[in-house]
């Protein structure tokens, strides 16, 4: 059952905890690096969350290539995660940020790409079996 849990739920839950429990810490600097150009690159908590979301989205795309019962459950739960994120973005002021909008779009991409990849993979598997 744990394999059916959408990975994008991790990032949405993380943002929820940070926004509702710890308060506005998204602009806090995680680290700074001096670039060769002389510019200082500052990575914030929001930047780190977006990078983590991209990594998790990639892993979701990889798992979408499997055709099993747990994959179907994963897609259904991914849809629930997207709807929850969309409602939070539109209704709760703590979630009305560009960072959370991007995370919400990542969850939408997870849903659409997940269904598309699974259907294409199942179609290929079906045609190979003929």
Topology:
Elements: H1 8-22, E1 29-34, E2 40-44, H2 45-63, H3 69-91, H4 98-129
Antiparallel strand pairs: 1-2
Helix pairs in contact: 1-4, 2-4, 3-4
General description of the model:
The protein has helices at residues 8-22, 45-63, 69-91, 98-129; strands at 29-34, 40-44. It has a two-stranded antiparallel sheet. Helix 2 packs parallel to helix 4 (98-129) and helix 3 (69-91) runs antiparallel to helix 4 (98-129). The chain has 130 residues and is mainly α. The model has no long low-confidence stretch (mean pLDDT 88). It contains 4 helices and 2 strands. 68% of the residues lie in helices and 8% in strands. The radius of gyration is 18 Å and the shape is globular. It has one domain. A hairpin with a 5-residue loop joins strand 1 and strand 2 (40-44).
